[in-house]
Input
Amino acid sequence: MNKIDFLDLGYQPLANNYLKLKNKNKKEKKYRLKVCFDTYTKLVSIKKIFSSKLMFNNQYPYRSSMSKTMIKSFKNLSFFIKKKFKPKKILEIGSNDGAFIKNFAKKQTIGIEPCSNVEKITKQKKFNTYPEYWSKKLSKKILNKNGKVDVIYSANTISHIKDLNEVFNAINLILKPNGVLIIEDPSLIECLKRNTYDQFYNEHIYVFSTLALENILKKYGLKIFRIEKLKIHGGSNRYFIKKKEGKKKIQKSVDIHKKEEVKFGINKIITYKKFSNRVKKSKKKLIEIFRTLKRQNKKIIGYGATAKSTTILNYCNIDTKCINYFLDTTSDKQNKFTPGTKIPIYKYVKLNKKEIDYVFLGAWNFKTEIFKKEKKFINQGGKFIIHTPYPKII
Ligand code: DWN
Output
């Protein structure tokens, strides 16, 4: 037995399953959200894994282009890719609404997006996208039509796919011998440091560390040659990966990351047990903040009905007794209710101190962008509640 449970986040609904009014009182699918550490591979994963079809289908509400931060990050990366790797063909696994591929010429790109409601957005703009799950079969189909590709990019997607064997074998089929694979996902060390336990939910099957990813990749003859630390999504790593025969030099950043992880104890179960204790304390503190404010009759709303906040709200039993409603810019979430806790979600309007006292920041990962947008509310004395690195009012 290599896998040891270290975190129990209780019964949870599917994180992106926003409820329509007609389904609000129907029984929801729930599961016990436990997280485990594999002492052999050092991989951290959730225990109960749902089928991709249940999670990623034609009802998927998330849109990558809902934040200026993401749009800017994709734009900057596309400049870098064009300059450094000069790709003739670039393939994106999990292209969502095209926020990344739109930075390239249409004939240069291939997008893979199984959520057809989102894929449609890029298809309508005449991008070459496939509404399918990434697999060896799909890789072969694209290979026969387009040939091998120079760059494969995948942001916040590989961590969502159970069968990593299929993922990397399919990548190996279509990537040129000197091609580059770029993977971007939340960083485990940042999650542990910032106590962002809400990175764990049904869609995040894995939260990768460099050590674990390196262990997985070597089975497929793949090697990390550069790592960039990003502020995106509360701390992510962007891994640049090559084939064994690829000519790219291994850069210092790889060793720096590995050493930092070992120093932090990413490879030891005790680190995870300590994290679990901090999460329990975080829950108590957050509940205390809400209780105190509600005793003072303060009006609290939520900002950004994120998949992550589903974990927090359900773990801490925060419902309409604490939060009147959420505001969100995503049209597919508006006029629905948060999974499990059934808090209404409304169309975003600028915050107004005359109407609201406190705002729970569900989209804490876009704090800088949101604080800039809500300057007036902040200047009028409006306050935010945030749970990371520890629950507090700011
Ligand atoms: O990995 C995943 C990430 C990339 O996206 C998926 N499994 C699901 C989803 O997770 P999330 O919902 O936790 O992601 P975000 O990007 O933190 O969601 C931000 C939410 O906040 C969106 O619904 C949009 C909304 N928002 C807003 O209402 N006003 C965001 C910003 C920046 C804003 O100003």
In short: The chain has a mean pLDDT of 97. The chain is about 35% helix and 25% strand. The first strand starts at residue 3 and ends at 13.
